[in-house]
Amino acid sequence: MKTPSVLLINPWIADFAAYDLWAKPLGLLYIGKFLRNYGYELQLIDLMDRLKWNNSGSVMNHPGRGKYHKTIVPKPEAVVHVPRRFGLYGATKEQFLSALQNIDPPPAILVTSHMSYWYPGVAATVKILREYFPSAKIILGGIYATLFPEHARQNIKPDFLISGYGEKKALQILDSLFGISRDYSIIPDFDDSGRLPWELYPKIESVPILTSRGCPMNCDYCATPFLNPAFKQRKIRSVVTEILWLYEQLNVRRFAFYDDALFTNKEHHIIPILESLSRHGIKAEFHTPNGLFAREIDGVLAVLMKQTGFRTIRLSLESIIPKWQKASTEKVSTDHFEQALQNLANAGYQRSDIEAYLIMGLPGQTFIEVEKTIRYVAQKGAISRLASFTPIPHTRGWEKARAEGYVWDEMDPLLTNNTLYPCASADFPVEKFMELRRLSNNLNELVRKSSKKENA
Ligand code: SF4
């Protein structure tokens, strides 16, 4: 029998703006690894692989980070009023078609999805796949498919839709297509051991790593507890072996930890991981684009972070207002934040190297509360990073936003785009959000300038 095979597709992003922060379609690659373990051959087209398409003009300046190439397309009806240009980000259509020409026609195609409001990019990708491979079965999974399954069924029209963990479900669907039977009672829903199929990338210079799945916290506005109901950390050896393999075999020198709770259980997880990497003499950069739990950054961990090569450090602060800290599972207090900054400074970081995530736009949150928090971060010598709240189904934040009329069950996910400030109101209009962004930018600039002066 011919080896069963599947084509993995990371689709276009459709948005007003998109920026690459060491991103790769981790969920899709985890499923690919799982399927490979059960005998499937994999092919991959990652439309967001800037290094492969080499069309963004910024690849060399910021390895692992940078702007994607944008192809302007007409705005979808729901956002036609937004005075910005809408586009498909990633490979051009010609590049996509040429990649399709070079692969064997696949019997089945697994398409992932990320932010729900990027779905026009998924729709555009699937349209081309249908035209090119009319007999292939399309299986759609990922975050959008899990959060808005009915919308995805109606708008993308996949042959199969997977909600939630996709590994075992994808295997069962593919087995049914290929006429393969096996005992599923002994097959886990997912398996995070081993390394991902990174060799599917023709060239790779930075890699996102997950050392765990899920998060032990349960913040009002976050979909992680729904998407990943159980918090599970990988085995230390598995993480270290994967990083060493990438370092030695593929010459990767930049890693971004994509965990939601990287420092949880630190004595038995991240500390032994970093110590082991140090013992192996790894000389690499480590970045943490997701918020870190400040309370875990004690003197020992701060020194280890510096020694191992942590560069981008982002702490979850969200707000200094107790009410909003409570909505964030009280994962950080101002005392924790200040202590973490001090420990990182003692370890050799500039305070202006440290960024703090702040949230704005929660239903009921006021302009003054956000402003105070931005000023507090600047006063502590750190950089503020404003994240604007977007309501996500299956969260308490969504329920609250729905109760106040900002969102409704059948709404177009495009309207949840955070650049539209979905919970703007008469008391806290869009102009005020823009004012806060300007304030944050101005104070960040002052913080950086004064830090430079101090070091001159
Ligand atoms: S700590 Fe972060 S990942 Fe965890 S629930 Fe809160 S926002 Fe989500």
3D structure, described in words:
There is one protein chain. With 456 residues, this protein is of the alpha/beta class. It folds into 2 domains: 5-186, Rossmann fold (3-Layer(aba) Sandwich); 205-455, Alpha-Beta Barrel (TIM Barrel). It is built from 16 helices and 18 strands. The chain has helices at residues 26-37, 50-53, 93-101, 119-132, 143-147, 149-156, 167-178, 224-227, 236-249, 270-279, 299-308, 322-327, 334-346, 367-379, 396-403, 430-455; strands at 5-10, 13-15, 19-21, 41-46, 65-67, 70-72, 87-89, 108-111, 137-140, 160-161, 206-209, 212-213, 232-233, 254-257, 285-292, 310-318, 354-360, 383-388. Helix 4 (119-132) links the parallel strand 8 (108-111) and strand 9 (137-140). Helix 11 (299-308) crosses helix 13 (334-346) and helix 14 (367-379) packs parallel to helix 16 (430-455). The longest helix has 26 residues, at 430-455. The structure holds iron/sulfur cluster. Iron/sulfur cluster (SF4) binds next to helix 8.
Instruction: Just give the CATH class of the largest domain.
Output: Alpha Beta
Oligomeric form: single chain
The distinct ligands, each listed once, are:
iron/sulfur cluster
Radius of gyration: 22 Å
Question: What's the CATH topology name of the largest domain?
Answer: TIM Barrel
Count of the separate structural domains: 2
Percent of residues in beta strands = 15-25%
What sort of overall outline do the alpha carbons produce when their principal axes are compared?
globular
Low-confidence stretches: none
